[in-house]
Amino acid sequence: MANLMKREGGVGTPARSIFSDFFSDVDRIFDNDMFLMPMPWKRMDAGSVPAVNIKDNEKDYLIEVAAPGMKKEDFNVDMDEGTLTISSQKQEEKTEEKDNFKRREYNYSSFSRSFALPDNVKTEEIKAQYTDGVLRLTVPKREQQERPKKRIKID
Question: Has this prediction a pTM greater than 0.70?
Fold first, then answer.
């Protein structure tokens, strides 16, 4: 039995499967928002939250946040009940006036990342530094204390 094929033009035009149109329409749904405006998912996802690396060293944890183009004043680092939150909210406005027109550009960006810290950290000694587009937080660990062993007598 022959495959169902759709022809694009007349004689001599390559044949395509009827399913290729169906799947290309489905792909288009996920590449556009509800108003059919292009919205590349990779760009939207990558632009919303900066990349974070966490290193577990012997004496501390090192948290690195890649945030080029920002200033240290743009960040907020808060500690609340064992949760470390790194956030930023940046607002820019540019105005350009020429002969008969005025142009204004607005740019808003924000992000927030929270990390539940383990019980063995010294929250009072956390240090943060921003250089070369990377925010680095050093979270010192407490010395591990061995808990005493004790045999419990059963009555």
Answer: no
